[in-house]
Design a protein that fits this description.
By secondary structure, the chain is α+β, with helices and mostly antiparallel strands. Helix content is 17%, strand content 29%.
Length: 287
């Protein structure tokens, strides 16, 4: 009889999803096809496309591949943290204010005359003025660049500009001991050159950073999701910054299909679903 004996048939194992806070390592950022195949230990159909140009301008997707610290969480999870950066528009004809970012990754919104003079005394919408917590060494920011800088700052454990003043018994802004935290050449990202980001990650390749991991549900399928607007260095025990950032983001319509919670990373348990619809989303590229 020309048939092999086969193996015992079994039901497919459901893919587990996880939710909560976790310290993670950064394994790679925007890997090419060969690097991605080595990272995922499987074949990838085509070269990843990270840069897009359309009527809205130039956009780059930044995929940070991360892995949980199993010694801390007891869970081994690999997923990715994604940002979409849009190149700044240098056209001031609309008269609108534009976001700027200084060398310490602090941001503000300025009008064209304020930008040209590099003043830090900025106008309010009601006609008054205020002193912005930025240096005159600012430039136009890419959309969402501030969050990438925050990730890198917390990952590298760089000194902050917000420090405790014993005399005033409050936190104050000071750049005396702070470290620069801004990309030197963000324009290269839109040309597909990610070397600056990769070099930064390699400064401290064994460092970790704390992230909030959630579960996104679309059309009955569940995917891992990672909150991309707040990051915390692993030495910080409080998660209140995460809670506020997530609540604010959801109040403004972000992450409508993603569930987060405010506990340490654990398995996400819900009512039974059709696991036949489950698929590997590790390389779920949006375009």
């Amino acid at each position: 009889m020309a048939f092999g004996h086969g193996v015992v048939s079994n039901e497919a194992e459901p893919i587990k999803r996880y939710i909560g806070y976790a310290p993670v390592f950064i394994q790679a950022v925007n890997p090419n096809k060969a690097e991605l195949e080595k990272l995922l230990n499987r074949e990838v159909e085509s070269e990843p496309e990270y840069v897009k140009t359309d009527e809205n301008g130039r956009t780059v997707r930044l995929d940070f591949y991360i892995k949980t610290d199993k010694k801390v969480t007891g869970i081994e999870l690999s997923t990715k943290l994604t940002f979409f950066l849009t190149a700044p528009n240098n056209n001031w004809e609309d008269g609108k204010k534009k976001q700027v970012i200084d060398e310490f990754a602090r941001t503000a919104w300025v009008a064209q005359d304020e930008f040209n003079s590099k003043t830090t005394t900025l106008r309010k919408n009601d006609g008054g003025t205020y002193e912005a917590h930025i240096t005159p060494n600012y430039r136009l920011a890419c959309k969402n660049e501030e969050y990438v800088s925050m990730l890198l700052r917390e990952f590298l454990v760089l000194p902050l500009t917000r420090v405790w003043d014993n005399d005033q018994k409050m936190y104050v802004e000071s750049t005396k001991d702070a470290a620069p935290c801004r990309l030197d050449h963000p324009e290269k990202l839109f040309n597909g050159d990610f070397s600056e980001l990769r070099d930064i990650i390699n400064y401290q390749p064994m460092n970790r950073v704390k992230v909030a991991i959630g579960v996104r549900e679309i059309d009955g399928r569940q995917y891992q999701d990672v909150f991309n607007r707040m990051f915390v260095r692993v030495s910080k025990n409080s998660n209140k910054d995460f809670e506020k950032a997530i609540e604010d983001a959801k109040a403004n319509g972000a992450y409508p299909n993603t569930t987060f919670d405010f506990n340490a990373l654990h398995e996400y348990i819900v009512a039974p679903t059709d696991f036949a619809k489950e698929e590997d989303d590790t390389n779920d590229l949006p375009w």
